[in-house]
Structures are given as structure tokens and as C-alpha cells.
Amino acid sequence: MKKIYLDHVATNPLHPEVLDAMMPYFRDDYGNPLSLYGPGFKAREAIEHARESSASLINAKAKEIIFTASGAESNNFALKGIAYALQSKGKHIIVSKVEHHSILNSARFLEKQGFVVTYLPVDNYGLVDPEAVRKAITGETILISIIHASPEIGTIQPIGEISRIAREKGVLLHTDSVAAAGNIPVDVQALNVDLMTFAAHQFYGPKGAAALYVKEGTRIVPLIYGGIQEGGRRAGTENVPAIVGMGKAAEITKRDLQKRIEHIRPLRDNIISSTLKIDKVILTGHPEQRLPGHASFVVEYIEGEAMLLMLAAKGIYSASGSACSSKALKSSPVLISIGVPVHLAQGSVVFTLGEGTTSEDITYFNETFPQVISRLREISPYSKGWDETEAPTCTAKK
Amino acid sequence: MYSEKVMDHFTNPRNVGEMPDADGIGAEGNPVCGDAMKIFIKVKDNIITDVKFQTFGCGAAIAVSSMVTEMAKGMTLDEASKISKASVAEALDGLPPQKMHCSNLGADALHKAIEDYKNKQRK
User: Fold this and answer.
1) Which domains does chain A have, with CATH numbers?
2) How far is A5 from chain B (nearest CA, A)?
């Protein structure tokens, strides 16, 4: 059976050149980068080279890159590190309602520590209104953190406009660019952000390697104390092969990004136009201002996890924001924030393409997805429409 | 995540559909919760001669509905009343713990259908 991976926003396969670059640091060059002899020097050099490549992908300086182990760590680091560094200046933080859990849960943690957090709403496309950011800023505001692109609905935020307001008001801006960096051109100078999170596995690098860009001169308190690794800002013996992999992936991505986008976008457009021909299917997120490989929908009358399973049984791998497909059994807060009613959010499904996706894959997808939808609609009691008498809220214990 | 039996009943659900001349209908859950099912029964001489279901929900919810209809078909009303969430889950070789309550509504819907049939008989 065909295997068609359409969940690139979850993670990506390792690029073969990346694996080749990493292998020596598992096998032969295993030195500790802090050691004062040959193998240590070699490891240190490899890390610094990776730092330059990773910086270059986002047009930063090498010294502005702090390697971490995940996007979630970088997001925690940005929020907590800035909050603690600037708490004498103020205790107010602004985030949006469509942030990743690693931002939202860090914000909730900080609220328990006495910080005040504003959660900005978004419009039906998932966009933050820059003017709403301006209005939310007070004399106490020390940090704004807005996601760059949504992994769930693909919408790309107007970070450049938000940064102008942040700059004008003298407030730091962090953006969680995990879903964007490596998938669209990202330039921290043009975006004018102070901090940015990005992760290697989103651009064919290894899992366990990510970074936080911290603009030169920005004070940040470490999450992890210990030795002098990462300039004392992130202690712990470096994961040398992973960091090398991130650097290599950044190099390849810088080289291939435009080609990848040109390959992926028409295939994605094909998925969207063909899927929207199916009755009672809605595109979620912004129609144009969205990640080039991202197609996300709400399919009425059926449930997302059932769609994923039936698609997987036909060799197509995808994701959903439905309650049943989440371990916590809660509907995606992003879908609720863009105004999708809870019963429709159950029918959420997300397809994300990658450089390995072919037009044959899309042809097969376009044949298969309507079959899956009609099969599940045959089973559904709502195939002729929602029953208006249903209780509007869910009281079942979950 | 799911047992082979769950996947079998999910991919090839038994007894799907509406029953226009049902003797009893039971509904449980709602789409806001994520799972909703309807069970239709046909009864003759106290025996469930036919069962159909319609389900909105995840893989587990569809498999549970299918299994319940298969178990109930041919049973007396008393026997079918004894079908429980636990016995359905067991017949499916188990369900993931987080699915035990929210998606395991088949037995409840069946009991409601039996109740509905009995109420109609009394009238």
C-alpha cells in the first residue's frame, strides 16, 4: 500500500545529507566541546559552525543563537527568561489565544508567579490585530509573544506590523516561529523581533535540536543553570550531533527553500481546491496568508479521529484538532478562538506537505479523501444535517 | 492504540444505517461532546431480531456501536439489557483508558432503545 505522509507540521524526515553530517559526531568525534584537547576542539568547532549556519537561515548573528533541545524549551526560555530578567521594570505580558501550549502554559505558570498576562483574541482567519496589541500595551508591559505561523490553521501573523508597535512602545517581542522558520523565508532583521524560537525537525533536521534567537544586548535569565555552555545561558553538555544536524539542515534549507516552496504550493492549492468541492467542507485559517504546504479543513457531520484512522488505513497520514484525537480530549483552542463551533471543531483535519510530496500522492489523496468522507457520513446520524435539538454544551465527564 | 478487533469493527462496521420501521430507538451522547450514537431495534417475541446504528464519533465510538449491534442481535430483551460498557469493551479486546467513558456509549444507547420499545408496548 502507498504511504503518503501529509503531517509535515508534526515533524519531518531527516534529510540524508543531514544524517551524513551528524554521523561522525556519534561515531568518531565524540569529544566534549569543553575539553581542552583535539576531539574537544573539533566538537566545539562543529557547534560554532552550526551556530553560524542556523543564524544565517534567519539572518541573525551567530552569537544571537542559543541552542536548546526543543521548540517548547525555547518558548519556555523566552517567556520565563525575559519575565524574570525584566520583572523590576514591569510584570505584564501579552500573548495571543492561538499560541502553542508551550507559550500558553508558560504564561499560566507566570501568572501564578504574580505576572499579569493578556490573551489577545484573533479574527476568523486566526489573525492578531496589531492595533489590539497596541491597545493592550501598558506601562507595565515587558514582553509580547505572538506565534509566527499556526501549525493548526497555517495562518501567518503580521509580525512585522506588530514589531513596529512593540518597538515604538519599547516592549520586547518574541515570536514562536517553529512552524514558519525553514518553511517560509524568515529574516529577524526585517521582522524586527527581539527573540525567536525555531526548531530543526521542522526543516528536515533532527528532533531534539532547536534554538532561541536572542537579539544582541537583550538580557535573559537562564532556565538551566550549570556550566558555561551557550555563553552561560543554557548549561549542559551540548548534544553535538543534533546541533550539527540543525546547522546542516539550516544550510540546505537556505539553499533549497525557494525550490521547496515552488514545489509544495501548487500541490497544496490542488488539495484545497479539490477538497472544497466536497459539500459542507470549510477551509480553516487564512486563504492566502498561510504556510505554503498547509491545508486545513473542518468537515461537517463526521469526527476528526475517525477521518485520521480511515485515511491512515488507506496509507495517508494526517492530523486533527478534534477533541477525540487529543489525549486531553479537548477541542483545539485555536479552532475555538477562530469561532469554529465545538461540534464543527470535531471534524477538524490538517494536511501538511513536504519536499517529498509528489503530484501522484495528491492525485491519490484527491481520490481517497472524498471516499473517506462519504463512508463516515454514511455511518453518521447527521448526514442529512445537524439535529438542532442537540444540547449546546457537553456535560459528559471526560 | 486500538486493538485489531476495534480496527476491524471500525473499518468494516456491521449493521450501519437507519431503520425506518424500528420498534425502539435509543440515542446517546451529542456532537459537542465528540460522540453521538443512535441505535434502532426490531423486536419479535421478546427477541431482538434486527439492530442498526448510526454514529458520529471517533474510531472507538464507531467500533463500539458496531460491536453492540452484533452482540444484541438474536438476544432476548433481558439478555440485551445486561450488555454493559465493560462487556462491550471486553468483546473488542479492550479500549484505551481515555476512550472507556466518552466513546463507549453503545450499551447505553441500546438500553435506551429497549426502554423506548417497552414504553411503546405499554401504550
Assistant:
1) 4-9+257-379 (3.90.1150.10), 16-253 (3.40.640.10)
2) 19
